[in-house]
Amino acid sequence: MMLEPSIDDLQTKIKSKYTLVTIAAKRARQIRETEKVLVDNPKSNRYVGLALEEIMAEKLFVKEDSK
């Protein structure tokens, strides 16, 4: 089973694998509860896949702290 989008592609959007997994899991739970997806014509039929597609489409991102 291939993960689509790939981890390498996803890490161009969010550098930390830990942050990527955390955001995707949290968003997957939100999608499950609301059934609202931020991308048009998603390819995945699984909640985590939908969350990852949203990250690739730059609908989800990490706000950097300004120091």
Automatic annotation (TrEMBL):
GO MF, one example: DNA binding
Q: Which InterPro entries match?
A: DNA-dir_RNA_pol_omega, Pol_omega/Rpo6/RPB6, RPB6/omega-like_sf
- Say what the protein does: Promotes RNA polymerase assembly. Latches the N- and C-terminal regions of the beta' subunit thereby facilitating its interaction with the beta and alpha subunits.
- One Gene Ontology CC term in the entry: DNA-directed RNA polymerase complex
The GO biological-process annotations, alphabetized, read as: DNA-templated transcription
* Keyword check for Ribosomal protein: no
Q: Which EC numbers characterise this protein's activity in its record? A: 2.7.7.6
> What is stated as this protein's family in its record?
Belongs to the RNA polymerase subunit omega family.
In its UniProt entry, the species of origin is given as Lentibacillus salicampi
Q: Which domain of life is it from?
A: Bacteria
The record's catalysed reaction(s) read: RNA(n) + a ribonucleoside 5'-triphosphate = RNA(n+1) + diphosphate
HAMAP family found in the cross-reference section: RNApol_bact_RpoZ
Q: What is this protein called?
A: DNA-directed RNA polymerase subunit omega
Q: Does the keyword ATP-binding apply?
A: no
Keyword terms? DNA-directed RNA polymerase, Nucleotidyltransferase, Transcription, Transferase
Assembly with partners or alone: The RNAP catalytic core consists of 2 alpha, 1 beta, 1 beta' and 1 omega subunit. When a sigma factor is associated with the core the holoenzyme is formed, which can initiate transcription.
